[in-house]
Amino acid sequence: MSRRPLLAANWKMFKTVSESKDYIDIFCELIKDVTDRDILIAPSFVCLPEMVSMLQGTNVQVGAQNMYFEEKGAFTGEVSGPMLLDIGVKTVILGHSERRHIFKEDDELINKKIVAALGYGITPIFCIGETLQERENGQTGDVLKRQLHVGLQGVAAVENVIVAYEPVWAIGTGKTATLEQIEDAHVLVRKEIAQLAGEDIAQSVRILYGGSVKPANVKDIMTLEDVDGALVGGASLEPESFSKIVRFEQN
Ligand code: PGA
Predict the structure, then answer these.
(1) Residue located nearest, by CA, to atom 6 of ligand 1
(2) pLDDT digits (tens, 9 = 90+) for 17-56
(3) Would 159 be classed as within a structural domain?
(4) Can you give the residue range of the structural domain that contains 19?
């Protein structure tokens, strides 16, 4: 089954609204002719409305970096699914390792967010990945399985989830996992999804790789059978760099 590639930018806590506008002006020119792959940018919450309106009718989608599972209420500092939908955002990154490690989100909380997002018709980009210590202890497989099983508990429509495998030790460190490590992890993830949701769904779910993806390595990574896209942090912050990633040549 052929899965449409997705190149997604995670801007993290970078770029003001005016900086994001300048970026979009340049970026859209660089990639306007690209039609055979999906492109998504996830800026900070404050940039979302402006970005959605600037990118309307273009080949670039807009996603959020987080979402709370409750619909509304006394949850200071949080943003809900209906709030995202209201401004036209239909994709959200959930369970990013920075949310897990800095903001102490656990598998159960991430599961609630995934279930809530799907309930609103918002596509979650569900991030999983092992720490360096877990890899060195030989726990990578167990960690990925646990994150998938708990994260997808009670999810009926696994086909609507995008998974991102991001080894924590490769994020923002310049250390990319080897091609073999990436493919092994992606194969394992697809097998687990097959167990949870059946082989057909597992074959249709897109699994992105994230962790120091850059113009120089994206082509090799995208050549791997089970890699369907990339989630890019640092190298997505300059339009020229992200456009080169988006335009990687398919074999
Ligand atoms: P990086 O970040 O590309 O800077 O390693 C990836 C991510 O955190 O999604």
Answers:
(1) 233
(2) 999 999 999 999 999 999 999 999 999 999 999 999 999 9
(3) yes
(4) 6-246
Cβ–ligand 1 contact at 8 (below 6 Å): no
**251 part of a folded domain:** no
Atom of ligand 1 nearest to the CA of 213: 3
- Please give the pLDDT value at position 251: 61
Number of domains in the chain: 1
pLDDT at 1 over 80: no
Q: What are the tens digits of pLDDT across the range 52-72?
A: 999 999 999 999 999 999 999
Task: Tell me the CA–centroid distance for residue 104 and ligand 1, in Å.
Answer: 18
Residue-wise pLDDT tens digits, 152-204: 999 999 999 999 999 999 998 888 889 999 999 999 999 999 999 999 999 99
Strand order in the sheet with 38-42: 60-62, 38-42, 6-10, 229-232, 207-210, 162-165, 123-128, 91-94
Q: Give yes or no: 166 in active site.
A: yes
Does residue 215 line the site of ligand 1, with CB under 6 A? no
> Rounded to two decimals, what is the model's pTM?
0.97
